[in-house]
Inverse folding.
């Protein structure tokens, strides 16, 4: 006998009003849409600016816009118009989540602040995806990826590594904070299952990205009275990069003591296996720049020996030849 089974997605039945734009918010709501939520993207008559950013086959549907807006419905509302605002409020009455990336003072001026909407729908999760946290020195100011990369310390740590202040060549702040926003909304929905009540949550880009960067780069300053410089040495050394070989580049990362012992043996450098600077992870971290420089100076054929090691011992990825 054939049995028909039906499956539901994780967020089946959850309705989300998405008043965000560019990448930070749309990336977060796309994650929730992928999990099965009904996401209604609310745009002004001008539309999301990313609709026309970069290549597109159809006007208003650029590659970047499509990259963060799949699985969504769409509605155009000029919220300065009373009828459009009333249409949004009717949607709010039915919604589980309202998320926006509008500056808080503008939402207040529109009568769409969290206090007003939570009185209207007490079960609503109202998520403010802001540039800076409420109560902070920059509260209410606009923010974009480059600004947050700079303020969170990314441009500075790139300077330490390369000698030149640079941003990461990806919209890291928007995407990282978008993941955090999706996480926060999911947590708020889970809490509502226990309490029956909605709430206001805030996901500020600056504070979120700074926390992300300082996981490793606060380093010894996590500890009172510790004198280590800020910055995790292993990832800041200039030698942390793919190594050139005779026919391309190799990416490698021996990490544990056992990995390194095997690497030293197989690469023809058994002397490093007994060098006290490199035998244990604590000492090796301190002298990682020196060790990386020695490895980089090795002839390319020696590096290629590592390809024969077990994946459990040494992770290698061959990068397409740039020759």
């Amino acid at each position: 006998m054939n049995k028909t089974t039906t499956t539901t997605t994780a967020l089946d039945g959850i309705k989300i009003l998405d008043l965000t734009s560019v990448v930070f918010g749309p990336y977060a709501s796309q994650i929730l849409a992928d999990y099965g939520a009904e996401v209604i993207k609310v745009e002004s008559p001008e539309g999301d600016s990313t609709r026309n950013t970069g290549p597109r086959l159809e006007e208003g549907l650029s590659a970047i816009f499509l990259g963060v807006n799949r699985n969504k419905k769409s509605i155009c509302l000029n919220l300065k118009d009373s009828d459009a605002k009333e249409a949004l409020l009717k949607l709010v009455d039915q919604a589980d989540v309202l998320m926006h990336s509008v500056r808080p003072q503008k939402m207040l001026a529109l009568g769409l602040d969290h206090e007003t909407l939570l009185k209207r729908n007490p079960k609503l999760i109202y998520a403010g995806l802001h540039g800076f946290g409420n109560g902070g020195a920059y509260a209410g100011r606009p923010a974009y990826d480059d600004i947050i990369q700079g303020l969170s310390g990314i441009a500075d740590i790139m300077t330490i590594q390369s000698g030149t202040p640079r941003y990461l060549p990806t919209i890291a702040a928007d995407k990282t904070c978008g993941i955090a926003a999706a996480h926060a909304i999911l947590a708020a929905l889970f809490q509502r299952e226990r309490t029956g009540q909605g709430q206001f949550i805030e996901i500020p880009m600056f504070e979120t990205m700074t926390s992300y960067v300082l996981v490793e780069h606060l380093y010894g300053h996590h500890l009172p009275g510790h004198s280590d410089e800020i910055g995790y040495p292993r990832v800041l050394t200039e030698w942390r990069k793919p190594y050139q070989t005779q026919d391309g580049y190799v990416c490698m990362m021996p990490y544990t003591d056992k990995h390194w012992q095997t690497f030293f043996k197989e690469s023809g450098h058994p002397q490093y296996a007994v060098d006290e600077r490199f035998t244990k992870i604590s000492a090796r971290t301190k002298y990682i720049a020196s060790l990386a420089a020695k490895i980089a100076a090795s002839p390319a054929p020696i590096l290629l020996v590592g390809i024969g090691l077990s994946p459990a011992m040494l992770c290698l990825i061959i990068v397409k030849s740039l020759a």
Remarks:
- The mean pLDDT is 89.
- The chain has 14 helices and nine strands.
- The longest helix spans residues 172-195.
- The chain has two domains: 15-213, 238-319.
